[in-house]
Amino acid sequence: MRLDKIIHTRFYHQKTEHWKDMDELHEVLYSLPNYFKALSLELLEKPMSRQALRESLRHLEMRMGRHHRREFEKIDLDKDLAAAIERGVLEEKDGKIFLTPGGREIAEHMQLTIPFFVGTLFSAKVVSIVTIAVHVLLSILKLTFGLISGSAGLIADGIDNTMDTVSSVLVWLGIKYDRGRLVSLFIVVMMFVSVGGVALASYNKIVHPGPVEQGTR
Protein backbone atom coordinates (compact mmCIF):
# COMPACT_ATOMS: atom_id res chain seq x y z
CA MET A 1 0.00 0.00 0.00
CA ARG A 2 1.29 3.47 -0.88
CA LEU A 3 2.38 5.66 2.02
CA ASP A 4 -0.13 8.40 1.20
CA LYS A 5 -2.90 5.76 1.23
CA ILE A 6 -1.72 4.53 4.63
CA ILE A 7 -1.79 8.06 6.02
CA HIS A 8 -5.19 8.72 4.43
CA THR A 9 -6.62 5.53 5.97
CA ARG A 10 -5.08 6.33 9.36
CA PHE A 11 -6.58 9.83 9.65
CA TYR A 12 -9.59 9.76 7.31
CA HIS A 13 -12.20 8.95 9.95
CA GLN A 14 -11.24 11.78 12.29
CA LYS A 15 -14.00 14.31 12.87
CA THR A 16 -13.50 17.92 11.85
CA GLU A 17 -14.80 20.94 13.72
CA HIS A 18 -14.43 23.75 11.21
CA TRP A 19 -14.56 21.88 7.87
CA LYS A 20 -17.31 19.77 6.38
CA ASP A 21 -15.20 16.61 6.53
CA MET A 22 -11.60 15.38 6.15
CA ASP A 23 -11.93 15.50 2.37
CA GLU A 24 -12.54 19.23 2.47
CA LEU A 25 -9.72 19.73 4.99
CA HIS A 26 -7.31 17.82 2.75
CA GLU A 27 -8.50 19.70 -0.32
CA VAL A 28 -7.64 23.03 1.33
CA LEU A 29 -4.38 21.66 2.75
CA TYR A 30 -3.16 20.40 -0.63
CA SER A 31 -4.10 23.70 -2.27
CA LEU A 32 -1.48 25.45 -0.15
CA PRO A 33 2.09 25.71 -1.47
CA ASN A 34 4.54 23.39 0.29
CA TYR A 35 6.52 26.22 1.90
CA PHE A 36 3.26 27.71 3.17
CA LYS A 37 2.59 24.60 5.23
CA ALA A 38 5.84 25.22 7.13
CA LEU A 39 4.80 28.82 7.77
CA SER A 40 1.41 27.61 9.01
CA LEU A 41 3.14 25.55 11.70
CA GLU A 42 4.98 28.69 12.82
CA LEU A 43 1.72 30.64 12.88
CA LEU A 44 0.34 27.93 15.13
CA GLU A 45 2.75 29.21 17.78
CA LYS A 46 1.97 32.91 17.43
CA PRO A 47 0.62 35.53 14.99
CA MET A 48 3.25 37.07 12.73
CA SER A 49 3.60 40.19 10.62
CA ARG A 50 4.21 39.96 6.89
CA GLN A 51 7.81 41.02 7.47
CA ALA A 52 8.30 38.27 10.06
CA LEU A 53 6.84 35.74 7.61
CA ARG A 54 9.29 36.92 4.95
CA GLU A 55 12.14 36.41 7.43
CA SER A 56 10.90 32.91 8.20
CA LEU A 57 10.67 32.22 4.48
CA ARG A 58 14.26 33.41 4.01
CA HIS A 59 15.47 31.14 6.82
CA LEU A 60 13.57 28.23 5.28
CA GLU A 61 15.27 28.89 1.95
CA MET A 62 18.68 28.83 3.65
CA ARG A 63 17.88 25.51 5.32
CA MET A 64 16.65 23.95 2.09
CA GLY A 65 19.87 24.84 0.27
CA ARG A 66 20.78 26.32 -3.07
CA HIS A 67 19.20 23.46 -5.04
CA HIS A 68 15.76 24.90 -4.22
CA ARG A 69 16.71 28.52 -4.89
CA ARG A 70 14.75 28.76 -8.14
CA GLU A 71 11.60 27.48 -6.45
CA PHE A 72 11.87 30.15 -3.77
CA GLU A 73 12.52 32.87 -6.35
CA LYS A 74 9.10 32.14 -7.88
CA ILE A 75 7.27 32.56 -4.57
CA ASP A 76 4.82 35.45 -4.31
CA LEU A 77 4.14 35.57 -0.57
CA ASP A 78 1.53 38.34 -0.75
CA LYS A 79 -0.42 36.45 -3.41
CA ASP A 80 -0.31 33.21 -1.41
CA LEU A 81 -1.39 35.03 1.75
CA ALA A 82 -4.35 36.52 -0.11
CA ALA A 83 -5.32 33.07 -1.41
CA ALA A 84 -5.09 31.57 2.09
CA ILE A 85 -7.23 34.37 3.51
CA GLU A 86 -9.80 33.75 0.76
CA ARG A 87 -9.83 30.00 1.54
CA GLY A 88 -10.53 30.76 5.19
CA VAL A 89 -7.17 29.55 6.46
CA LEU A 90 -5.77 32.94 7.53
CA GLU A 91 -7.00 36.33 8.60
CA GLU A 92 -5.17 39.63 8.98
CA LYS A 93 -5.79 42.11 11.77
CA ASP A 94 -3.74 45.05 13.07
CA GLY A 95 -0.81 44.16 10.83
CA LYS A 96 -0.66 40.56 12.08
CA ILE A 97 -1.45 37.32 10.26
CA PHE A 98 -3.52 34.85 12.28
CA LEU A 99 -4.66 31.31 11.68
CA THR A 100 -8.43 31.09 11.57
CA PRO A 101 -10.04 28.27 13.60
CA GLY A 102 -10.10 26.28 10.35
CA GLY A 103 -6.47 27.13 9.62
CA ARG A 104 -5.49 26.11 13.15
CA GLU A 105 -7.26 22.79 12.64
CA ILE A 106 -5.26 22.22 9.44
CA ALA A 107 -1.96 23.07 11.18
CA GLU A 108 -2.78 20.78 14.10
CA HIS A 109 -3.66 18.02 11.64
CA MET A 110 -0.20 18.44 10.06
CA GLN A 111 1.38 18.20 13.50
CA LEU A 112 -0.26 14.80 13.91
CA THR A 113 0.51 13.44 10.46
CA ILE A 114 4.18 14.51 10.22
CA PRO A 115 5.43 12.28 13.10
CA PHE A 116 3.31 9.41 11.76
CA PHE A 117 4.75 9.92 8.26
CA VAL A 118 8.35 10.07 9.50
CA GLY A 119 7.83 7.13 11.84
CA THR A 120 6.44 5.02 9.00
CA LEU A 121 9.02 6.09 6.44
CA PHE A 122 11.98 5.49 8.72
CA SER A 123 10.59 2.52 10.61
CA ALA A 124 12.82 -0.51 11.10
CA LYS A 125 10.70 -2.49 8.65
CA VAL A 126 10.97 0.02 5.80
CA VAL A 127 14.70 0.60 6.35
CA SER A 128 15.34 -3.15 6.40
CA ILE A 129 13.42 -3.69 3.15
CA VAL A 130 15.33 -0.91 1.38
CA THR A 131 18.64 -2.26 2.71
CA ILE A 132 17.79 -5.75 1.49
CA ALA A 133 16.93 -4.48 -2.00
CA VAL A 134 20.22 -2.55 -2.26
CA HIS A 135 22.29 -5.51 -1.07
CA VAL A 136 20.57 -7.90 -3.49
CA LEU A 137 21.33 -5.59 -6.42
CA LEU A 138 24.97 -5.13 -5.38
CA SER A 139 25.42 -8.86 -4.85
CA ILE A 140 24.08 -9.73 -8.30
CA LEU A 141 26.23 -7.10 -10.03
CA LYS A 142 29.46 -7.91 -8.20
CA LEU A 143 29.16 -11.69 -8.49
CA THR A 144 28.17 -11.50 -12.16
CA PHE A 145 31.02 -9.23 -13.21
CA GLY A 146 33.43 -11.03 -10.87
CA LEU A 147 32.71 -14.40 -12.49
CA ILE A 148 32.87 -12.95 -16.01
CA SER A 149 36.17 -11.16 -15.42
CA GLY A 150 37.65 -13.73 -13.05
CA SER A 151 38.28 -10.99 -10.49
CA ALA A 152 38.82 -12.45 -7.02
CA GLY A 153 38.23 -8.99 -5.54
CA LEU A 154 34.78 -8.61 -7.11
CA ILE A 155 33.83 -12.18 -6.18
CA ALA A 156 34.91 -11.53 -2.59
CA ASP A 157 32.87 -8.31 -2.52
CA GLY A 158 29.92 -10.16 -4.02
CA ILE A 159 30.10 -12.84 -1.35
CA ASP A 160 30.36 -10.16 1.32
CA ASN A 161 27.30 -8.37 -0.07
CA THR A 162 25.40 -11.65 -0.21
CA MET A 163 26.14 -12.19 3.46
CA ASP A 164 24.97 -8.63 4.16
CA THR A 165 21.75 -9.43 2.29
CA VAL A 166 21.15 -12.56 4.33
CA SER A 167 21.95 -10.61 7.51
CA SER A 168 19.45 -7.89 6.58
CA VAL A 169 16.75 -10.48 5.92
CA LEU A 170 17.47 -12.09 9.27
CA VAL A 171 17.37 -8.74 11.07
CA TRP A 172 14.00 -7.98 9.49
CA LEU A 173 12.66 -11.42 10.49
CA GLY A 174 14.13 -11.01 13.98
CA ILE A 175 12.32 -7.70 14.42
CA LYS A 176 9.07 -9.13 13.09
CA TYR A 177 9.11 -12.31 15.19
CA ASP A 178 11.10 -11.06 18.21
CA ARG A 179 14.00 -13.48 17.75
CA GLY A 180 16.92 -11.09 18.25
CA ARG A 181 19.31 -13.50 20.01
CA LEU A 182 18.83 -16.28 17.49
CA VAL A 183 19.38 -13.84 14.63
CA SER A 184 22.57 -12.49 16.23
CA LEU A 185 23.97 -16.02 16.61
CA PHE A 186 23.17 -16.90 13.02
CA ILE A 187 24.75 -13.68 11.73
CA VAL A 188 28.00 -14.56 13.54
CA VAL A 189 27.97 -17.98 11.84
CA MET A 190 27.35 -16.34 8.47
CA MET A 191 30.31 -14.02 9.04
CA PHE A 192 32.58 -17.05 9.39
CA VAL A 193 31.03 -18.54 6.25
CA SER A 194 31.73 -15.27 4.45
CA VAL A 195 35.37 -15.32 5.55
CA GLY A 196 35.66 -18.91 4.35
CA GLY A 197 34.18 -18.03 0.96
CA VAL A 198 36.56 -15.11 0.48
CA ALA A 199 39.53 -17.27 1.52
CA LEU A 200 38.48 -20.01 -0.92
CA ALA A 201 38.14 -17.54 -3.80
CA SER A 202 41.57 -16.07 -3.04
CA TYR A 203 43.14 -19.56 -2.77
CA ASN A 204 41.73 -20.61 -6.15
CA LYS A 205 43.08 -17.44 -7.70
CA ILE A 206 46.56 -18.15 -6.30
CA VAL A 207 46.57 -21.85 -7.26
CA HIS A 208 45.06 -21.24 -10.70
CA PRO A 209 46.30 -17.82 -11.76
CA GLY A 210 45.13 -16.42 -15.05
CA PRO A 211 47.49 -16.02 -18.01
CA VAL A 212 49.74 -12.99 -17.92
CA GLU A 213 49.91 -11.09 -21.18
CA GLN A 214 53.39 -10.00 -22.19
CA GLY A 215 53.80 -6.66 -23.83
CA THR A 216 55.66 -6.23 -27.10
CA ARG A 217 58.55 -3.89 -27.51
Description:
Helices cover 75% and strands 4% of the residues. The chain has 10 helices and 2 strands, in the order ααααααββαααα. It has a two-stranded antiparallel sheet with strand order 1-2. Helix 3 packs across helix 7, helix 8 runs antiparallel to helix 9 (152-177) and helix 9 (152-177) packs antiparallel against helix 10 (180-207). The longest helix has 28 residues, at 180-207. The model is unreliable at 116-122 (pLDDT under 50).
Shape: elongated
Can you tell me the residue ranges where pLDDT is under 50 for at least 5 consecutive residues?
116-122
Total domain modules: 2
How many distinct helices? Answer: 10
Q: What do we call the CATH topology of the largest domain? A: Arc Repressor Mutant, subunit A
Strands side by side in the biggest sheet? 1-2
| Second rung of CATH, namely the architecture of the largest domain | Orthogonal Bundle
Based on CA atoms alone, the radius of gyration comes out at 28 Å
How far the N terminus sits from the C terminus, by CA atoms, comes to: 65 Å
Helix content: over 70%
What fraction of the residues are assigned to beta strands by DSSP?
Answer: under 5%
What is this structure, in a nutshell?
With 217 residues, this protein is mainly α. It has helices spanning 3-11, 22-31, 34-45, 50-64, 69-73, 77-86, 101-121, 124-149, 152-177, 180-207; strands at residues 90-93, 96-99. The protein has 2 domains: 3-121, Arc Repressor Mutant, subunit A, CATH 1.10.10.10; 124-207.
